[in-house]
Design brief:
globular; 4-stranded antiparallel beta sheet; alpha/beta; Aspartate Aminotransferase, domain 2; 11 helices; 7-stranded mixed beta sheet; binds pyridoxal-5'-phosphate
Length: 403
């Protein structure tokens, strides 16, 4: 039996998987053009404005408002919707911390609803039980680039008069029943941070079909100015969350690469899902058939320790990495277990003298935090052989651990 790399054996592969970000002379040209234009500031420039229009059009949305990050996008949407101290926002505990932090930063209380085992997205069947008189918004997160059940979420939101803010930070180009995400709800947020499928290192955008939301978001991210009107008159309380022209220029080129990269990711993901059928205990998610385009920011896998001699997902991921496979565990704690979230929620409730407890039982999220694995998007840009190596390494480890 082959000795595992984690135990000092020879790794299954030494060749790296595709690196990220990917770029070429077009990005270089775009940066040079911006440099020599002398216009590096978005309100006076052309790149960010063009990118806003192009990214919105790509997603079938009418308006785009570029901002400094996905975190900023979420906060700007909440502020635009006047979500304030003591308001409640329903979201999922299986997401990046920024989804919850944005709520807490405006003084709102995130309420966490469990996720579905087939997608790891919010379970719409459990949303209504979490709605109270304080609830103002729902933030569905399209986790890993796979859209949440937007039909159900929008229907619930309309009935309870809630704002829907999509956290599409991982879901560039993804589609729900043929419609691209971002403006399915009231507003949608994307991130262009370094790991994301469209990136400028940092950056974000808000998409919406509603001119009113677009103008409010623009103002909240532009120090409270009004887009049309006198610059120094009638200023609202807000900060500067603008994106620079450098990022805008890069993002326009990166967006042009997205279709081809998405096709490669989808094709490799389909191939990998079939190939993983050979490995007991590694189960790709069945997904939701209404998802017509998965962005595959993360390829998500359920791990069963029993099929690997009782070793944890963390131990398995470490063994895979030692074999040269960039598989990782995902979020390891539902957000309600994060100390900061608990403390900040308690602080807000105490300040406002809010009484009454809420119970948050999210058994599926608890399981995913223990048994969920991710293969990141850039690995899916590789070859069929790169996918086969995922399977080969998993079988090698399984053999060694099962004895
Ligand atoms: C689901 C989710 N929401 C929000 C964010 C925040 O985006 P950013 O890192 O651009 O602030 C991220 C990205 O890291 C994310 O993955």
């Amino acid at each position: 039996m082959a000795k595992l790399a984690i135990d000092g054996g020879v790794p299954l592969r030494s060749k790296p998987y595709p690196s990220w970000p990917q770029w070429g002379v077009q990005e270089e040209e775009a940066l040079k053009q911006t440099l020599y234009s002398g216009q590096w500031w978005a309100p006076g420039g052309t790149q960010v404005k063009a990118f806003e229009a192009e990214f919105a059009a790509y997603h079938g949305a009418r308006y785009g408002v570029a901002v400094a990050s996905g975190s900023a996008a979420l906060e700007v949407c909440l502020r635009a919707a006047r979500i304030d101290w003591g308001d409640e926002v329903i979201t999922t505990p299986y997401t990046f911390i920024a989804t919850a932090s944005a709520c807490l930063l405006v003084g709102a209380i995130p309420r966490f609803v469990d996720i579905l085992p087939d997608t790891w997205n919010i379970d719409p069947g459990k949303v209504e039980a979490a709605i109270t008189s304080r609830t103002k918004a729902i933030i569905p997160v399209h986790i890993g680039g796979e859209p949440a059940d937007m039909d159900a979420i929008i229907e619930i939101a309309r009935r309870h008069n809630l704002v829907v803010i999509e956290d599409a930070c991982q879901a560039h180009g993804a589609a729900w029943r043929g419609r691209r995400v971002g403006a399915l709800g009231d507003m949608g947020c994307f991130s262009f941070q370094a790991s994301k499928n469209v990136t400028a290192g940092e950056g974000g955008i808000i998409l919406t079909d509603d001119e009113g939301w677009a103008e409010k978001c623009w103002s909240v991210s532009n120090v409270g100015h009004k887009r049309r009107g006198e610059w120094y008159k009638d200023i609202a309380l807000a900060s500067n969350y603008r994106l620079s022209e450098w990022a805008g220029a890069i993002l326009r080129v990166q967006l042009g690469r997205l279709d081809e990269q998405m096709a490669r990711r989808s094709s490799n993901a389909a191939y990998l899902s079939e190939a993983l059928a050979q490995v007991e205990g590694l189960d790709p998610l069945p997904g939701d058939p209404r998802v017509t385009r998965n962005a595959y920011h993360l390829y998500k896998i359920w791990y069963n320790p029993e099929a690997f001699g009782g070793h944890s997902a963390k131990e398995f991921a470490a063994a895979m990495q030692a074999e040269g496979i960039p598989l990782s565990v995902g979020y390891t704690e539902p957000l309600y277990r994060q100390r900061m979230v608990a403390e900040r929620r308690a602080f807000i409730r105490e300040k406002l003298d809010l009484r009454g407890e809420f119970s948050e039982e999210c058994p599926v999220a608890e399981q995913v935090c223990m048994r969920g694995l991710w293969l990141r998007q850039s690995a899916l840009l590789g070859t069929r052989e790169d996918m086969d190596d995922v399977v080969r390494a998993a079988l090698k480890i399984q053999q060694a651990w099962r004895g």
